[in-house]
Design goal:
Blueprint lengths: L2 E5 L2 E4 L7 E5 L8 E6 L6 E6 L5 E3 L7 E6 L4 E6 L8 E8 L8 E4 L3 E6 L1
Parallel strand pairs: 2-11
Antiparallel strand pairs: 1-3, 3-8, 4-5, 4-9, 5-6, 7-8, 9-10, 9-11
């Protein structure tokens, strides 16, 4: 079955970097778009970034210039490199699998999430 396992969250200071990772299994990873979402306490989950099967990347406005999404098809992993972290980036970050090779609104499955906490 489809499994998405995030890791690499943690507690950092404002301005620091962090690189959450997601290990995927149970589906044709190289043919599938992947994404990252986040949910802060008391807020709705929001889209952060996505990477299509051919490596095209997309970012929410708040992530542009600070976050970089990547994928390693051989290792079946996706990473979210986050630089210049701010306290408002504090949230649970979720890996997401889309239904096919392109980034769409509909997500097939989310991982369990990894907590990112940014202190000022």
């Amino acid at each position: 079955q489809v499994q998405l396992v995030e890791s690499g969250g943690g507690v950092v200071q404002a301005g620091d970097s962090l690189i959450p990772s997601c290990a995927a299994s149970g589906f044709a990873f190289s043919n599938t778009a992947m994404g990252w979402y986040r949910q802060a306490t008391g807020k709705e989950r929001e889209w952060v970034a996505a990477i299509t099967a051919d490596g095209t990347t997309y970012y929410n406005d708040f992530a542009k210039g600070r976050f970089t999404v990547s994928r390693d098809n051989a290792k079946r992993t996706t990473h979210l490199h986050m630089d210049g972290l701010k306290p408002e980036d504090t949230a649970v970050y979720y890996c997401a699998k889309y239904h096919g090779p392109n980034h769409t609104i509909l997500v097939h499955k989310f991982g369990q999430g990894t907590q990112v906490t940014v202190s000022s």
